[in-house]
Amino acid sequence: MQQQPLNKIELNMKKSILIVAAALTIGLLTNNVFAQTQPATPAPATPPAQTAPAAKADSVKDIDATIANVADLSSLTADIKAANLDASLKAVGPFTVFAPDNAAFSALPKTTLDSLMKDPVKLATLVNAHVVAGTYDKKGIIKALTNATRTATLKTVDGQTLTIAVVNKKVQIKDAHGNTAEITSFDTPATNGVIHGVNGVLMAK
Fold it and tell me: Rounded to an integer, what distance in angstroms lies between the CA atom of residue 106 and that of residue 88?
C-alpha cells in the first residue's frame, strides 16, 4: 500500500513532540552537569570548645586565716579564737604580728596558760602584746635599727612598747617586763599586713 503523505497538521504535531522531547533531554543533561560541578555543601562547623578561665591565684589571705593555716602556730590560733580576736585580725589594718610558735607557749607555766584561757580579756591583752599597728617587714626593721643605739621601739595596738635590738646577730624583741623573743622567720605575707615568727611569748604591762 502506498503511504499517504502527511498533512500539515500532522507534521506540526510531530515537530512539537520532537521539540518537547529535545527540551526535556537538554534539561536533564543540564541538571546532571550542574549537580556534578556544584561544590558539596560543607557540614556546619563545630564551635570550638569553651575553655573555662583559669582561677585567679589567691593564696595570700588575711592574718587570722594565714596564722590558722600554719601547724606550728596552732596554740596562737586557739588563743586568738578564745580571745575573740578573729575579726580584729581580719580587719583592714595593716598589722605586723610577732607570732609565737607552739614551743613558746609550751614553755609557759601550765597554771599561767590555764588562767589565761579562762579569761578572754587577759588572753586578748596577751595576744595584742604581739600585734603592732602598721607594716614592718624585715627591710623596715633593719632600717629602724640603723641608728647609734642599734635599737628601735614599736607600739602595739594596745599602746605597749616593744624594743627591738640585734643581740648575738639575732633580731630580738623585748617587752616592758624584760621578756625576750628572737625572730625566727620573717615576712610571711597577709592581705592586711605581715607576720614574723618568734620563739617566745611577750607580756603586756
Answer: 25
Q: pTM to 2 decimals?
A: 0.70
Q: Which of 158, 181, 179 is nearest to 171 (CA)?
A: 181
Q: Choose between 77 and 49: higher pLDDT.
A: 77
Count of positions (residues) in the chain: 205
Extract the C-alpha cell encoding 195: 607576720
Residues 202 and 173: their CA atoms lie apart, in Å, by 8
Q: Whose grid coordinates read 609565737?
A: 100
Helix, strand, or coil (residue 95):
strand
82-109 pLDDT tens trace: 999 999 999 998 999 999 999 999 999 9
- Residue 194, strand partner residues: 96, 189
d(CA 13, CA 178): 131
| Alpha carbons 70 and 189: distance in angstroms, whole number | 13
